[in-house]
Design brief:
The protein has 109 residues and is α+β, with helices and mostly antiparallel strands. It contains 3 helices and 6 strands, in the order E-H-E-E-H-E-E-H-E.
Length: 109
Amino acid sequence: LFMHCGQLMFAPHIEENQLMDAALEAGADDVIVHDDASKEVITSPPQFSEIKDALIAQGLQPEFGEVTMRPETEVELLGDSAMTMQKLLDALENLDDVQNVYSNASFDE
């Protein structure tokens, strides 16, 4: 259900074609453009740092980047279901023995 990958997030003002060309040339697996015009570059975990450095060298500064578990599919939650899931995720994250929490829940903001 989850894919272990590198994830770099870019702001909507970053030019799509420039990012796509630079990312694919550096060896990224995929470039995703979201509905809000933000961009996401997906890499394999071993290539994450190399690709991130290559994009920064070309003036493309990510707003966020990490090696993570990305859900293959997402489930959109609304209303009470979203609040209940958020409470569960917060409770799990607050446990001392828990290092990381991954979810395929998508919250409508």
